[in-house]
Amino acid sequence: MYGLLIENLADYVKDNFGEDTWEKIRKRAAFDQPSFSTHEVYPENYISRLAKTSCEVLKMTEQEFMGAMGKQFVGFVGQYGYDRVLSVLGRNMRDFLNGLDNLHEYLKFSYPKMKAPSFFCDNETTEGLILHYRSKRRGFVYYTMGQIKQVGKHYYKTDLDISLIKEETLMDTLHVTFQLKFDNRAYIESLKIDIVKDNHYLPVKATLLFEIFPFSVAFGSDLVIKCTGISLCAVLPQLINKRLNQAFELVRPLVDFKYSTILARRNNIFELMTAQSIWDLRGKSPTPSHLSNQEVMPFSGEGVEMDIERKLHLKGQMLFLDEWKMIVFLGTPVMNNLDGMVASGLFLNDLSMHDFSRDLMMAGTQQSVELKLLLDQELLKSKKLEESMKKLDDEMRKTDELLYQMIPKQVADTLRHGANPVDTCQNFDLVTILFSDVVTFTEISSRITPMEVVCMLNDMYSLFDKLTEMHGVYKVETIGDAYMVVGGVPLWYQEHAEKVCDMALDMVEGITHIKDPSTGNSIRIRVGVHSGPVVAGVVGLKMPRYCLFGDTVNTASRMESNSESLKIHISETVKNLLHDTYRVSERGEIPVKGKGSMKTFWLQSKKGRKPLNMDNLLNDSPTEESQRMYSPVTFKEVSKTSRINSAASRRFSEPHAEKPQQKTVSIESVEPEASKPKINRRLSLAHNEIRVIKPKQVRMHHQVIEVQNRNSGEVRRYIVQPEYKTNDIKVKALPPPVKKGVVGVQVNPSDLDKTNKAKTLVESLAVDAACCLPSATAAKDSSVACTIS
Prior knowledge:
Layout: H1 3-17, H2 19-28, H3 45-58, H4 62-76, H5 82-87, H6 93-98, H7 100-107, E1 118-125, E2 128-135, H8 141-155, E3 161-170, E4 173-181, H9 186-192, H10 206-212, E5 217-219, E6 225-228, H11 230-235, H12 244-247, E7 248-252, H13 259-264, E8 269-274, H14 278-282, H15 304-309, E9 313-321, E10 326-333, H16 338-343, H17 357-406, H18 409-416, E11 426-438, H19 441-447, H20 450-471, E12 474-479, E13 482-487, H21 496-510, E14 525-538, E15 546-549, H22 551-561, E16 568-571, H23 572-577, E17 582-592, E18 596-606, H24 614-617, H25 624-628, H26 635-640, H27 647-651, E19 663-665, E20 667-669, E21 679-684, E22 690-695, E23 703-709, E24 715-723, E25 728-734, E26 745-747, H28 758-779
Parallel strand pairs: 14-16, 20-25
Antiparallel strand pairs: 1-2, 2-4, 3-4, 5-6, 5-10, 7-8, 8-9, 9-10, 11-13, 11-14, 12-13, 14-15, 16-18, 17-18, 19-26, 21-22, 22-23, 23-24, 24-25
């Protein structure tokens, strides 16, 4: 199937329903390519898939859609110049319908692989006729009806009434009979034409007729071939006395190969093809000796196509001679080029001299190379354009996905069409809002590095984001450690309070799996929920965000700020919206800033609630949906720029990276310092059982660190001193002395450059020295190495 029909479908949808509707249909039908080439052949099921999806999206029946698409076709092909072909097919509607079968023959030069249908008219009256339609395709009946109606209206100013009388399948061919009613007075005019006949015929011999038409075939009612033209006789002399339906196959029209059928369809163009190749019929190669050593047959295909190329094709008119009581097929050979002509066993002198057969063959051969080159160039450009369009489509999809993560889809589409941001604001009479924050978040942040804060919040928010998808609620925003969720916005639903409370219960359960890097204990959150009216929408021009406005937002925030650790604080309004399956306990009257005294409740549990499947929620492996998301910067990339070996950098470090050249430094026992320095900062390690306390700098370029094993409670102290003269670093243990054995710390020599600051070296070494301690303590007498990243 050529892309012309698919482009016709796309043109109809775009003109009548818009570009966005066509994109929706194309994506739902699973077509990645944004456009189709009119001269390229596509699978037969493409048009049926697109038509079926279009009917579903547009809420139309197959008859309505295909009929409208057929009407659109008449105007659509005008941009390719085919409107001129349609306008010259006949003087009136009757002539057009009788010559409709020949229309596809004229188009075969542009579409050589076209599988054309067949048309035939009978039972003509002044009020209409019967039209027979035969095709090997399915699903184009109403499409054809729409085309015929539009041609009559557009070119012949005639209104046609088409009805389907009968539809049947014969073998692999669909046969449909139409009743056409229209003003057919041209039929009477054709009967009045008086063909002048002279009984005194000019003395023309039969041999002259077969010289004028060198590829003609004369046969009787029994289909036995009586005589052939001189050129056909030279190529296939054994055709005489053979039956026509045994020597040839009927390619067109799609009718039974019988004498009566041929006699009734003499106004159709007939195409015959030899049943066997010329080589098989003649028993030898048709190529003469002077061409045997030359490449005269570079066939365009292989297998079946090559075999068809070697068969002789004849196309022409069936003429009944009453004097002979026979039908004469006035045919001419069908050949694409000189190679095809030679493959058929023919030469230029076999073609007629009185027409342009020889001139067309030579002219076509001279221009074929240039046309093929131009066609190849156009196909290459079309392919590159299609690839560029596909890349653009992928980028637009990524952009849309990123936008829809920030703003609801319906709101984003409204803004995309040029609407004022204020016009996106909507009133919601009753929705439910949730706020949550981390208890003692400020204290936790003071004990860990900024990158560790980011990683901790990312783990927590990723968990909450998955919960919003599970419960069908909308994430509004995050501010620091605060997380805001709403139910019933932007699409309102009745169960907004239940869905938000279900998520609150899951949040409290799921947060126990998120650890505080500084202590290893679970993070604790507090949750507040309130229901009421809000206004939701986008305001402003820069950095657009979908926000909620109203006193309900403030009250929900107050519920959260007055909540307690690992508890869900709800207002009386929320309590009244919940059904009996939720277990709620009364907290009593409490003072609420800006609201006075309010009666509030604790949400404790829900009857029949299933526990969370944390394996799926905490799984970091990317899903198919997450792989499609646009992520310009990752935590792995951020951690590479960190000055110290933070938890984030360890988390994303390459486990199989090649190790650089290392240098070993020993740890020695020395006397303790006079005074113990004060602790001002903690470094959290990936190992859950190690805590490193980094004190202040004791002396210039000296650093004291304390390492505590959380299992045993044992504390060890070390002093680190860089030696710039020898490019060494000394790490000395302070009392109590380390038990037997040496703890080795490996350092990259490139990090020991004299121009580096001592603080950077000390921080890096301090962290990795602490990493070695638990292993050294467990092994006691073992030497342990650790790498500085």
